[in-house]
Amino acid sequence: MIHFKLEEFNCTHTNKCSMDSEFLEKLDTLRGICGFPFRITSGYRDASHPSEVVKAAPGTGTHCQGIAADIAVSNGVERMKIVHEALKMGFSIGIARTFIHVDARTTTPVLWTYAN
């Protein structure tokens, strides 16, 4: 990886990290194409992470699989660039007010927005 340190993806609950290397390379490519720094707000999540234990199937989400990251955004230009380029690369995308979720699920890519 050129643009990231693996520690940036550590679980905020356990400090563990089990990110998929292919996903990280793809994310690194996205970062290079976008041309501005990415701040990762959530990468790997252990199954015990509070955001995971409340799910219907805890520990099965893309963050737990090491194939997802949330990227902080501070303006619409960054948001548009990340979404535009990530779509071209085949990422699934979730759009929130303060971050963009990207993942490399193996099913058909999807796009969604968060309620707040």
Please render the helix and strand layout as text.
Blueprint: H1 21-34, E1 40-42, H2 50-53, E2 68-72, H3 76-88, E3 92-95, E4 99-103, E5 111-113
Parallel strand pairs: 3-5
Antiparallel strand pairs: 1-2, 2-4, 3-4
Helix pairs in contact: 1-3
Explain what you see.
This protein is α+β, with helices and mostly antiparallel strands. The chain contains three helices and five strands; from the N terminus they run αβαβαβββ. A five-stranded mixed sheet has the order 1-2-4-3-5, covered by helices on one side. Helix 1 (21-34) packs across helix 3 (76-88). The longest helix is centred in the N-terminal third of the chain and has 14 residues, at 21-34. The chain is globular, with a radius of gyration of 13 Å. The relative contact order is 0.18. The mean pLDDT is 94.
Roughly what fraction of the amino acids lie in strands? 15-25%
Based on helices, strands and strand pairing, what is the structural class? alpha+beta
What's the overall geometry?
Answer: globular
Mean pLDDT across all amino acids: 94
> What is the number of helical segments per DSSP (H or I, 4+ residues)?
3
Poorly predicted ranges: none
Question: In what order do the strands lie side by side in the largest sheet?
Answer: 1-2-4-3-5
Secondary-structure element sequence? Answer: HEHEHEEE
Largest sheet: 5 strands, mixed
Instruction: Please tally the β strands and state the result.
Output: 5
Task: Report the helical percentage.
Answer: 25-40%
